[in-house]
Amino acid sequence: MALKPFRAPAKMLFSKGLPGTGRHDQRARRPIVFDLSRLLSRAYFTTPTGIDRVEYAYAVELLNRVPERLRFAAVHPAGGYYGRLPIGAVRQFLAFTQARWQTRGEAAADVRAQAIRHLFALRPRAVPVPLGPRIYIQASPHHLEDTLLVRNILRTERARMVALVHDVIPLTHPEFARPNGAAQHARRVRSIDTFADGIIANSQSTLDALAARLTPRRNRILRVAHLGCEWGDTPMLSLAQTDERPYFVCISTIEPRKNHLLLLNVWRRMVERMGEGAPQLVLIGRRGWENENVIDVLERSVLLRDHVIEHADLDDRRLAQLVAGARAVLLPSFVEGYGMPVAEALAAGVPVIASDISSLREVGGNVPEYLDPLDGLGWLDMILDYAKPDSARRAAQYDRLLEWSPVGWGSHIETVLQVVDELADRRG
Asked: Phi/psi class of residue 232: alpha, beta or left (left: φ > 0; alpha: ψ in -120 to 50)?
């Protein structure tokens, strides 16, 4: 779960496009079709997933950069066949999406009514007959398990495909996936392997795991592009000004690979030692699957009742405020494709304590504290140290933060467009 979506100013979101430069004139040779299926399928949800935020950022950034050649398409959630989406309706839908993520001010019924109106306006139109090859960009795994559908989409568009891959965790670690998750993800990877001429991985760790499952193809383009991290103008108000009790934040869906049980055991030991003086743990994220042990502790532990706080549904402003006041953001995961909470916490100037796994080191560099996700005593000692107002280790991480800078969405999309251009230069 990411902390904050990319938030373009309205003047950018509704821009008609910039005057063409040499680079953009060169890129105007082939139309780009961007698949918006994931966001449409999530139109009724007020809390976005990380993949939701990525698809949103792609749509906004592509609109800003290459509006003259950009088209939108989707497999409509109402069951309508794949087709072209009206550009004006897409712009309005993106503004609606941004607004509903930012605050929870409206009742669920009002949000649903607005979503229905937007989805009606976004009814797919027929795909125009191609005058030449197109480039089709897929930034989410939505419908990729349906190989026949993907084949028909690309034939209809007469398009080459560029796909963003978020992770292959259900294949490398099937024990952490939903039931049948490994089989479903295998079908998605099969579609990518069969149809994608360009593949963007969100980390080198993801690309390495994916490459082992791809059929060798001489002309396929493989690239790594770290996900963008932009907080926009969300106020980073620290709660430490009004609450003297230190607290730590963990941001993720409650599921086995996120390793919440380690944190709960650490907090149980702290409360046994320190009583009411123990710091608080704030869990931000919805309850996922295969998490019965964690849920039992959250619902039945008397000892942790006043020390562990669970938030399943926070708007972006409240989320940013909670993160800003935390002693550190904790991410004890066993495996990650990228680790967006690490990047966004560091971008907000908040220390991070994370698992010592390659994908998180790739994101955080030498800034966070890294610990084995099985080292409960190590996590206990580190958290107790960071809870101190005069923690030397925490101060040292702040010093390291001065040398760290986040990747922007502009840099990520630049890599995507480079892949698009390379494919456009090739025959076929």
From this structure: left
3-state class of 4 per DSSP? Answer: coil
CB 195, CB 158: distance < 8 Å: no
Q: At what angle do helices 181-195 and 147-157 cross, to 10 degrees?
A: 30
Give me 327's structure tokens.
Answer: 């002693």
Strands 280-284 and 369-371: unpaired
Reported as a single tens digit per residue, the pLDDT across 349-366 is 999 999 999 999 999 999
Integer Cα distance of 346 and 404 in angstroms: 8
For the entire predicted model, the pTM comes to 0.87
**Spatial distance between the Cα atoms of 33 and 209, rounded to a whole number of angstroms:** 27
Name the percent of the chain lying above pLDDT 90. 67
Q: Alpha carbon 239 to chain centroid distance?
A: 25
pLDDT band at 394 (very low <50, low <70, confident <90, very high): very high
Q: Give the DSSP letter of residue 136.
A: E
| Spatial distance between the Cα atoms of 47 and 103, rounded to a whole number of angstroms | 10
pLDDT in tens, 134-181: 999 999 999 999 999 999 999 999 999 999 999 999 999 999 988 888
Cβ contact 329:251 at 8 Å: yes
Q: How far apart are CA 5 and CA 230, in angstroms?
A: 7
Q: What residues does 17 pair with on adjacent strands? A: none
Beta bridge partners of 254: 287
What is the percent of the chain where pLDDT is above 70?
87
Flag whether pLDDT at 108 surpasses 90: no
CA dihedral 238→378→291→100, nearest 10 degrees, is: 20
* Cα–Cα distance for residue pair 245/280, rounded to 1 Å: 8
CA 63 to chain centroid = 19
What radius of gyration, in Å, describes the C-alpha atoms of the chain? Answer: 22
The Cα 391–Cα 385 span in angstroms is 6
Using DSSP bridges, classify how beta strands 83-85 and 308-311 pair: parallel, antiparallel or unpaired: unpaired
In order, the DSSP letters of 336-394 are -SS-HHHHHHHHTT--EEEE--HHHHHHHTTSSEEE-TT-HHHHHHHHHHHHSTT-HHH
- The three-state (H, E, C) secondary structure of 219-281, written as one string: CCEEEECCCCCCCCCCCCCCHHHCCCCCEEEEECCECHHHCHHHHHHHHHHHHHHHHHHCCEE
Q: What is the pLDDT of residue 269?
A: 96
